[in-house]
Amino acid sequence: MKLLLVEDSAELAHWIVNLLRGENFAVDCAPDGESADAVLATQRYDVVLLDMRLPRMSGKDVLTRLRRRGDNVPVLMLTAHGSIDDKVDCFSLGADDYVVKPFDARELVARIKALIRRQSSGKSTALVCGDLQYISDTREFHHHDVPLSLRRREHAILETLMLRQGKTVSKQALMDSVYSLDDEPSADAIDIYIHRLRKHLASSTAQIMTLRGLGYILKAKDG
Fold first, then answer.
1. Which residues bind DNA (predicted)?
2. What is the pLDDT of residues 98-137, one digit of tens each?
3. Is the confidence at residue 204, as pLDDT, over 70?
4. CATH code for position 161
5. Would you tell me the crossing angle of helices 187-200 and 152-163 to the nearest 10 degrees?
6. Could you tell me if 101 and 17 lie in one domain?
């Protein structure tokens, strides 16, 4: 899953990015409101973390433009004050949640996961493909009740395939799920990650199939 962090404090942004990547999120970072607005007009994210007070365009204005475009991506506002007026403004403009600085790492991660769960309300908290299980609350993969130990990009690819289980996922879509804007995307690297994942799934009844020229599909083995 991919997040956008909009935060003008380089030190805080660095800390949050490392925290979220440690939780197997792909993270893009924008340092001001104008660049965030430009990125949000062209990129798709699962959650946006948006500082309220930003240079060049306020977080409130970024949020207003986002909702006017009809983009319903969950937005978690980061605010330094947490006054009632600020909170009311955030929610009235279309924010989904807020957290007051300084915040605990566990609280931030918990709030992000809560927003993701809210987006998938009505869906099962566990997805199954053969004997491979994906627990949406923790974003863990289990095989025979044993967690799979995956690297961050392997996790991102398998998560994308599992969430679109039974559907063809293009290599470009996998690249979008793995690489942030600061990375140098590599289509060849996707093949390497797929190869590693097939090794992880060697004893599983879930398999990743290649559809030449189209992409990949995760499905349970027949029989």
1. 124-220
2. 999 888 999 999 999 888 888 765 455 678 999 999 987 7
3. yes
4. 1.10.10.10
5. 80
6. yes
Residues 157, 77 share a domain: no
> Which domain covers residue 181, as residue numbers?
126-220
3-state secondary structure of 96: coil
Residue with tokens 């998938």: 120
- Weakest-pLDDT range from 129-133, 134-138, 169-173, 203-207: 134-138
Contacts of the segment 100-108: beta carbons below 8 A, 24+ positions apart: 101/12, 103/78, 105/19, 108/16, 108/19
Chain length of the chain: 223
- Domain stops at, among 119, 137, 154: 119
* Count of CB atoms situated within 10 Å of the CB of 129: 23
CB-based contact 126:136 (threshold 8 Å): yes
- Cα-based distances in Å from 216 to 151, 185, 187: 19, 18, 13
Domain count, the chain: 2
pLDDT at residue number 127: 86
Q: Do 104 and 150 share a structural domain? A: no
